[in-house]
Amino acid sequence: MAPSAFSSGFLAWLRRKSGQASSPPLASPAPSSNDSSSHYFADTLPNQRETQHVDRDKLNDDLQYRVAWAQLFLGFTKEDGQVLNAALPLLNPIVSDITNGVYAHLFRWDYTKAPFLKRNVGFEGPLADSLEKLMLDHPQILFRKRFLNTYLRKVFDADYEDPATWVYMDRVGMMHTGRPGFKHRENKTPLHVDLMACTLLLGWVQDVVITAVFTIKEKDLSQKDRMAVLRAFNKVVAIQTDLFQRHYIRDDEEAAFNLAAQRFQDS
Ligand code: HEM
User: Can you give the pTM of this predicted structure?
Assistant: First the structure.
């Protein structure tokens, strides 16, 4: 599909997006009840009397179990995955604009720019030695953009029935906590990005995608399909967010312990 699927002005908006705090309104429709993706849980009917057991330890120890429950909770169905795959040709033309927007946005603050000063895995060229010298067209950033492009395309292209998709998303989360996550990152300089920055960036990308989908012309995407794409994307972002968080905070007790320790230090 040609980029003309987007209303005029959207690409200009996207390029101005860094620094703009717009948030398009989107009602959250009720979740669908026909979950077909879970092998672990029975479908939940609205008038169900029995409660199903969720194994708290297994949520932490078994990734596919965790994702299965997250899918069930959010109402992420096989159809949601298919809807995202079908939307790829519409979103494909703006993936590199979104990537450019992400880096322009992260480069606005030292806090989110600093991680890009360090040598990135697989990049062999010269590094910038200060934040001021690190520009958006630096070879390491151009190199990094290729990875982000791949990730963004994957969100729309992935086979959500394949457990490997969730393993990949889980490793993307893990690799920002200092653990390698991927084989190609083993024995390389660890990456540490705070959870807050990751969560906010997911929200920022979500905002851009919501806006993009709203500006696609009616003849290219009906209202019904538009709603389906946004709902499916929203659910994937929620699961990806969880697959970041679980590597930072193992469970609520650990969070409570950390908070108590912090308060003790501050007192
Ligand atoms: C929306 C949340 C985020 C997603 C989905 C994401 C995704 C990714 C992916 C797919 C990679 C490449 C993985 C590979 O090596 O195969 C990567 C690398 C990287 N990310 Fe993120 N990221 C996110 C947030 C952030 C934030 C907020 C920062 C910095 C403030 C950041 C900094 C980096 C850096 C510096 C690398 C390169 C590390 C290296 O190769 O040594 N990421 N990220």
Answer: 0.84
